[in-house]
Design goal:
Helix content is 45%, strand content 11%. It is built from 19 helices and 18 strands. The protein folds into 3 domains: 12-204, Substrate Binding Domain Of Dnak, Chain:A, Domain 2 (Up-down Bundle), CATH 1.20.1270.20; 229-361, 3-Layer(aba) Sandwich (Rossmann fold); 385-552, Rossmann fold (3-Layer(aba) Sandwich), CATH 3.40.50.2030. Helix 2 (59-71) packs across helix 7. Bound molecules: iron/sulfur/oxygen hybrid cluster and iron/sulfur cluster (SF4).
Length: 553
């Protein structure tokens, strides 16, 4: 059962997964269904852009495109039936926008007659056979344009994910909505030159900054600015619920609904930064963080003993004999056949987590796997509050250099590089981090510099925005012309498509010489990799010792 996917860092053999399952565990049927939906979303976007040119805006379509694209991100959704339902909805909305654009007098080109603009499903069997005719390869006139389309598409997927979280809190940005659809629609346009495709990728980075700023505003307006926090990593004796992923609205509702029930709440992986928000700290049954990054979930979910809620990726398919299988729930864009899915909010109401809470009451408390604390909460407002201290430490030479080590963690052994790199960094350097990459070094005894911890965690991967804001502020304080004159080096770990939009956002902000690892994306053609190297100084990681020499000189 063939497939082709190269959208994440784990792409098989560094080139792409060809099935019957991807390295992430997704099977060819589900990934091909997702790719079919992406193809149809391009068609929907083509007509939506045409309608927009005639002044028509359809909020339902704008929101659906984000949700559906988010569903196709690595490790988000493995539920074939949910994707099939989305495919049917994409076709309905495509027809709605086609009619709206036509009725408004929009002119269509030959693209409007292409396959995915006119294809109709006739039952689930026809959807499956169409899906297997799709097979994920991005259509393009040549390898470089395919590579640029992949960069733009994966960046758009990351943008859509962040836009969806902001939307859950009532925030959206028309520019971001339009750019996601523009990227999708232009993937159908073979008349775009190589340079126009490069420009589209770089322009997408601007909207990457905007969407992260939007989500930052949504999160901090709703829950306050993250503040320095010592997060407990031990356990208590009540049964607990473990919440993973990135969605803070789900976090809020779960905390409210568990209050007074005798059930505790713990975060896992990318939900750790929820501990830093003032609005969540007031809940006495919010205990802290359990375990580490997403890829350790198989062992950590077993010992947790209670139910687990995935609000987004990264979900790892459980082994057939996993003891925790009947304790896992998904919400939002995440899904897995066999796990129970919490229904979306209706008309501004809340999600209903009562089934999870009732199950938790019947479970044993978590087994303690570690003790102690992790320190975090260094998003932009908290760092600005410490600005004088930080600036003085740089001026006096107490801090020689900052290392932005944001991004993702993953299961590949090569990622030990990041632990070793953190351990070998000289004592007068500070790591700025965000995203699940932090788990490679956030429990190491790296100490502090005059009270400033040597690992400053801003939060989730989208909080990489905070790191960019901090860099901009330092540039201003030190009266520099260029962000690259700051004593900041970028050694970033990527895994999935959210990291792609973070990378494009950093490039848009003018950051140069980013080292990217543990491997460069499989979807970079030699020609596109060359442009990134020559224009932005992007480089792959090498050995820890060699890289330290490069960074410190
Ligand atoms: Fe990690 Fe997974 Fe946040 Fe990603 S948990 S890898 S880039 O989904 O989103 O950092
Ligand atoms: Fe392979 Fe990554 Fe695609 Fe999964 S998401 S099939 S691991 S390239």
């Amino acid at each position: 059962m063939s497939m082709f996917c190269y959208q994440c860092q784990e792409a098989a053999k560094g080139t792409g997964c060809t099935g019957p399952k991807g390295v992430c565990g997704i099977d060819s049927e589900v990934i091909n269904l997702q790719d079919l939906n992406v193809s149809l979303l391009k068609a929907l976007s083509y007509f939506t852009v045409k309608a927009r040119e005639k002044g028509i805006e359809d909020p339902e379509v704008n929101h659906f495109v984000h949700y559906a694209l988010f569903t196709t991100i690595t490790n988000a959704n493995f539920d074939r039936n949910r994707i099939i339902e989305q495919i049917k909805r994409t076709v309905e909305l495509r027809e709605r926008m086609k009619a709206a654009a036509r009725d408004a007098g929009a002119g269509f080109c030959a693209i409007a007659e292409s396959d995915y603009c006119v294809w109709f499903p006739e039952g689930n069997e026809s959807i499956l056979s169409k899906a297997f005719a799709t097979e994920g390869r991005i259509d393009a006139p040549d390898d470089n344009i395919r590579s640029l389309r992949a960069l733009a598409l994966y960046g758009a997927k990351g943008m859509a994910a962040y836009a969806e979280h902001a939307l859950n809190l009532g925030y959206e940005d028309a520019g971001v909505n339009h750019q996601v659809q523009k990227v999708l629609a232009l993937m159908l346009d073979d008349s775009l030159s190589l340079q126009e495709n490069i420009d589209l990728v770089l322009e997408t980075g601007k909207y990457g900054v905007d969407v992260m700023a939007l989500l930052d505003k949504a999160n901090t307006t709703a829950y306050g600015n993250p503040e320095i926090t010592r997060v407990n990593i031990g356990v208590r004796s009540n049964p607990g619920i473990l919440i993973s992923g990135h969605d803070l609205k789900d976090m809020e509702e779960l905390l409210k609904q568990t209050e007074g029930t005798g059930v505790d709440v713990y975060t896992h992986s990318e939900m750790l930064p929820a501990n830093y928000y003032p609005a969540f700290k007031k809940y006495s049954h919010f205990v802290g963080n359990y375990g580490s990054a997403w890829w350790k979930q198989k062992e950590e979910f077993e010992s947790f003993n209670g139910p687990i809620l995935f609000t987004t990726n990264c979900l790892v398919p459980p082994a057939a004999d996993a003891g925790y299988k009947d304790r896992v729930y998904t919400s939002g864009a995440s899904g897995f056949s066999g796990f129970r899915h919490i229904a979306d909010r209706v008309n501004g109401g809340s999600k209903d987590f009562s089934a999870i809470i009732e199950q938790a009451k019947t479970c044993k408390p978590p087994v303690e796997i570690e003790k102690g604390e992790i320190v975090g909460g260094f998003a932009h407002a908290q760092v600005f509050a410490l600005a004088d201290k930080v600036v003085d430490a740089v001026k006096s030479g107490a801090i020689r250099k900052f290392f932005v080590m944001a991004g993702c963690d993953g299961r590949m052994k090569d990622r030990n590089y990041y632990t070793e790199f953190a351990e070998k960094l000289p004592a007068d350097t500070v790591i700025l981090t965000a995203g699940c990459a932090k788990y490679r070094y956030n429990k190491l005894p790296l100490g502090d510099i005059g009270g400033i911890p040597r690992v400053l965690d801003a939060g989730q991967c989208n909080d990489s925005y905070s790191l960019a804001v901090i860099a901009m502020k330092l540039k201003e304080v030190f009266k520099l012309n260029d962000i690259n004159e700051l004593p900041i080096a970028y050694n970033i770990a990527w895994y999935e498509q959210k990291a792609v939009i973070v990378l494009l956002a950093l490039l848009y902000l003018g950051v140069k010489n980013i080292h990217l690892g543990p491997t460069l994306p499989a979807f970079l053609s030699p020609g596109v990799a060359d442009v990134l190297v020559k224009t932005f100084g992007i480089a792959p990681i090498g050995s820890v010792d060699e890289d330290l020499k490069i960074f410190l000189n």
